[in-house]
Amino acid sequence: MKNNSGYKTKQKENLLAFLIRNKDKHTNVREISVFLAGEGTPMGTATIYRQLEKLVGQGLVRKYILDGSTGACFQYIEEADCCHEHFHLKCTSCGQLIHVDCDFLSEAQNHIFEHHGFTVDSSQTVFYGKCSECSKAVQL
């Protein structure tokens, strides 16, 4: 009987390597699946989700659920990185997700708490619209 433990380990290594290499952006299960298949270590969607949930539980990966119509996004969190909460912009044309660190939005978040007693979870807050590239394309 063949032992597949090395194969499974290689899948996990490639999954983590992909997340680390793409730590500056959100990624989804489809992108991970395409990458792993290209590396010669394909992994089923359910297995990818299971591995991602383990990494989330270990505090190595952050999970973002942006809306009810798209799947979750994931992002590797570096230990040395002071990963802080921020708002997101999602382009309704191309689907790009942009991290936004903005003093104005932080002030609005503080205002909402101080004047309305409501704490905004910025990591779950998404503003929808068109990114600069898609806006330029419309104007042409």
Question: Could you explain the architecture of this structure?
Answer:
The protein is α+β, with helices and mostly antiparallel strands and 140 residues long. The chain folds into two domains: 80 residues, Arc Repressor Mutant, subunit A, CATH 1.10.10.10; 57 residues, Dna Ligase, domain 1 (2-Layer Sandwich), CATH 3.30.1490. The chain contains five helices and five strands. The longest helix has 17 residues.
What would you report as the Rg, rounded to the nearest angstrom?
A: 18 Å
The computed structural class is: alpha+beta
Number of domains: 2
| Extended strand count | 5
Report the end-to-end length measured between terminal Cα atoms: 62 Å
Low-confidence stretches: 1-7
Biggest sheet architecture: 3 strands, mixed
Order of helices and strands: HHHEEEEHEH
Task: Indicate the mean pLDDT.
Answer: 82
Helicity level: 40-55%
Within the CATH hierarchy, at the fold level, what is the topology of the largest domain? Arc Repressor Mutant, subunit A
Described by its quaternary structure, the protein is: single chain
Q: How would you sum up this structure in a few lines?
A:
The chain is globular and about 50 Å long. It has helices at 5-21, 29-38, 45-57, 103-116, 132-139, and strands at residues 61-64, 73-76, 87-91, 97-100, 126-129.
